[in-house]
Every structure is written in C-alpha cells, then in structure tokens.
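Bug: token stream looks shifted between consecutive jobs. Job 1:
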Amino acid sequence: MDHSGHGMTMDLPPFTLGRGLEYSPDPFFLAGCLLGLALYGWGVLRLRRRGDSWPVSRTVFFTVGVLSVALVMCTKLNNYGMVMFSVHMVQHMVISMLSPIVLLLGAPVTLALRALPVAGRGRKGPRELLLALLHSRYLRIVTHPAFTIPLFIASLYALYFTPLFDFLMESRTGHAAMMVHFLAVGLVFFWPIMGVDPGPHRPGYVMRMLELFAGMPFHAFFGIALMMATEPMIKAYKNPPASLGIDALSDQNAAGGIAWAFSEIPSVLVLIALVFQWYRSDQRQAKRSDRAADRNGDKELEAYNAYLASLQARGQ
C-alpha cells in the first residue's frame, strides 16, 4: 500500500473517468442525499394531495442538485480526491459552485413553508421555527454581502494556503467536513443573489449581479496562482501514491485549470437565472398593474382626461 503523505493509505490505479464514477458512497453524504430527496418528495406529494400545484421544473432542479452532490461524494471520485488535487478540485467546484445553484432553483424553503402544517395556537412547530429563522437577525447577517463575499473568498485562500487544509485532509471525516463547509458557503453566497426562496436580504437585480461579479474573479485568481506555480503548494498532495503514475506539480496545474474554468460556469448559469427572474418579475408587476387598473376603473386615466378637459374649458 502506498502512502499519500497525509494520513491516508490508498493504492489506487491510474485515474480514468470510468474508475472515478464507480459507486463508492460516503455514508454521511449518502444519508443526506437520500433524506433530502425523501423530504422534498414528501412536500410535493403533500401539496398534490391537497390539490395544490408545484412546478415540475423546481422538482427537477432540486433532484439534479442532490444528484450532483452524490456524483462527487458517493463515487470513487471521493477516493481519488483524497490523493489527487485535480480530482479534489472537481469535487470542490461542483459542490460549492454548481450544486448550490441548482438546489436553490428547486426552492426547498418555499416548499417547506407550503407543505409543513401550521401548529396550533400558542405552539411552535417546524414551520413556525423555520419562519422565525428566516426573520432572525442571524440570517440577516449571514446572507448580507458584507459577510457572504469575504466568506466565499476566505474559503479558498484561508483554507488552501494554511495548515488547516492539511489537518482536515488527515482523515475522511475531515475531508467530508470540508465538503459540507463548501456546500454551505455556496448556498449562503448564491441564495441572496439568485435563490427563489424568501430571504432577509434580497437586493435589486443590478445589485445582485454586482455581488456575483465581486466574488467570481477571486476563484479565477486562485486557479491562475495554482497553474503558474513552479512547485507543489499544497502539502497534502506533494507525494501522490506511486500507483497513480502522476506528477504532483502537473496535477496541481490541472487543479488550477479546473478552478479557473469553473469560475466562469456559475457566472453564466446565475446570469441566465437572474435575467429570467427579472423578466418574470416585470411580467408579474405588469399583470398586477393591469388588475389594479381594472379594479379602479382606470381612475388615473379618467382623472387625466378630466384635467385635459378643464384646461380646454379654461382656454375657451
């Protein structure tokens, strides 16, 4: 058995996509994915039995989001990610920048608020606790750009370029905890920008785009730094197992290329989602204005016509 240099002993054959996609579940993430799908499915069924509708697109988005987490954490990609920096970076980018976007488009919080039963008077059930959390000062702080943008950046630089990364990589538990952190940071960062669920911080669409572009370049800079390095920068990956047949510096350069390329993908996806949401919002506003005009008998137009008539009467 070859030693990876950071507390893990793995004698893995050279990486291929087929080997990487073999089923090899992480128990924590497998349980979390199955629980997430089960709870979401329960919510959708509860609405349907009640006669309420739920967009199929949201169910598809949430399912794809969960499956994307399972793809990188419940296959041998997770095994290879312990000893290959490039594979680890694929895990990191998917779980922090792709999975959160798709999960948020599934609107799980909105589904929970609609599906959970209302507790009796004077009592607090899961729905009431969720509402209290949504209106809490804590959530206002952690979803504010003054918190989310620095957190998003620090998750890269303060983790990879400090001893904390090597400490977490000493065990599978530490590696799993790191991935949970990446997922949580991604959800917190993207929720105020393009999430469809209600939240305490929801700026205008232009400001959301600015928030998005404030964080994305740092991912690109991080990737470029890894690509241009002339020696391995991450201790955990300095001595890959000989069975892999890889060079540590070349693998690090590949990891940098992956980080750089992935910084563009979420930007495009989120921009598309934002433009669509903006369009839908304008459509809803126009419909509300039309309904208000119908209810009021178009009083504003009548008042304007009366004003014109009075001007004409004065001129005669």
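Job 2, same session, no restart:
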Amino acid sequence: MVRVPKLTRAEVAQALRNPLLYIAERWTPEPRTVRRATMSAVVMAVVIVVTGGAVRLTGSGLGCPTWPKCTDESLTATSAMGFHGAIEFGNRMLTYVLCAAVGWAIIAARSAKPWRRSLTRLGWVQFWIVMGNAVLGGIVVLVGLNPYTVAAHFLLSSGLLAVALVTWQRVREGDGAPRPLVGKAVAQLSWLLAAAAGLLIAVGTVVTGAGRHAGDSSDVHRIPIDWKMITQLHADLAWVVVALTVALWFVLKAVDAPIGPLHRTRELFLILLGQGLVGYVQYFTDTPEVLVGVHMFGSCLVWIGVVRVLLSLRERPVEVSRVPEPTTEQPEPAAAG
C-alpha cells in the first residue's frame, strides 16, 4: 500500500487556487512523457475527425436530435434511439477523451523542468479550440446539419490538428529564435504549397456539403452547387498541390538542402498519391461510405504532411543561459621592503 501524504489546509487552498502549479511543484515528467502526452493530442485530433465522419456516413448526425442533452428528456442516448443514437452519442463522448489528451499535454508541459511557457500556451490554444469546436458541433445539430456549419466544424478540427502537431514538434526543439534552413524563395514556395493544400481541404468540405452523404436520412439542406463541377475543381487543386510538392522537392535537391526537408517532402508526395488514388476510386464508384471515410482520414494525413514540411524548413536551437566566467584573481604585488 502506498501511503497517501496528509495535506495541510494551506496546501489544499493552493491546489484549488492553481492546480497546475501545485502539480508542477511535486512532479517532474521525463522528456519522453511530455512527448507522449503531446502525441496523444495529435492522435485524438485525428480520431475525432474520423469518428465525426463515421457519424455522417452512417446517417447518425441527428441520432441525438438536440444539444447539449441527447434528447429533451435524456442526457444520454437511450435504447429506443437505436444504432444512430449510440453512434452520435459515442462521438460526443470522445470529445471528453480529446479533452483529457489535451489536458494531459498541458499538465506535462507545465510540469516539465525547466518550464517552457510557449509549450503551455500551445496546449491552452488546443484546449480553447476543442471547446469552441464542441459548441460548434452543438450548433451543427441544432441547425439540422446545415452543410456550412458542418464544413466549419471540420476546418476547425484541421486547425486543432495543426496546433497539436506544432506542440509535439516544439517539445523536441529548443526555445531559441527559429533559424531557417533554406533560402527565402524556398520558404515562400513551401508557404504557397501550404496555402494550396488549405484551399484543397476547404473545397473538399464544399464537395461534401454538396454530395449525397448528408449525415441523416431526413431531408437535410445541401449546398446548391453542381457537385461534378466542384468535384472537378477539387481534383484540379489536388494536382496543383502535387505539382508544388514535386517542385519543392526538386528545388530542395538543387540547393542541397538538409535531409530533413527532403524526407518530409517525399513523405508528403507519397501521401498525396495515396489520397488521390482513393479520391478517384470513390468518384468512379459513386462515393461508397467506406472510401469516403478513408478519404477523410487521408485528408488528415495530407495536412499533417504539409505542416511537417513547413516545420522541417527551420530549426530552433536550445537557448543556453550564459553564466559569467569567474574572474581570475591577480596576484597581489609584493610589498616594498
């Protein structure tokens, strides 16, 4: 049995007033623990996107017809609500798992020694994005799965994924000023790639909003736009992103860039090829639910690949505080005889 230490009234008051500081004063996680905590937030950011897609693709978007409760009379799904109620309510419960992962990342970052304020701030940015997206998810239900709110819900999840990935990367770096590993022109090309990828994902939400997977069997409003036209635009943008990725890889080779950016760019290219293959197969097979779900997972991988490319183009050295060297004592002059 582990003996539980007794807490004084002052310690209890301190824990209630600032629980993060209270934990940090009594626990120092290993660097590996902090990395795992931040990675858990990345994993859960992907999981919540995939399970949200499962809610829509199974027609369970209104399985819980209201929010924040599942029904007007019940906080949770009931057996009478069947499969759709269980799917929708299960996805809501995963939000708490996501909150726990982000909370663990915040606690681990705050307790690490030395304390890096930048990591804690990134953790809190994730927390507030999760809270905002939870409220937006409730609005999605209350407005009957309006496709514009569904698109915003997905894009905010992509923002969460980007911040979680940056947090994980920052754990493995120092707090020094970012130092570019490539020239300005190469960096501009990489940001152009990121902008094109962001536009690709945004247009993908319009394809979804105009497509046949509305999220519920009822008459859900769809975006009034020609689906084949917007799908063609989405495919064209995908080829633009592929072309920019290839161009960036050749430029990195030409300027003899470090191996890190080359590997990240090559990985992004392979992810794009796989995602494109899935996209074309689902288009010519009338968008089956399974392939649409795989495509949503692929969009997360594409976004992760793009963010990793951007992060690989600079480094942050560890800031070492300079300690003044001790002054050398000069020998005293010999006293005059």
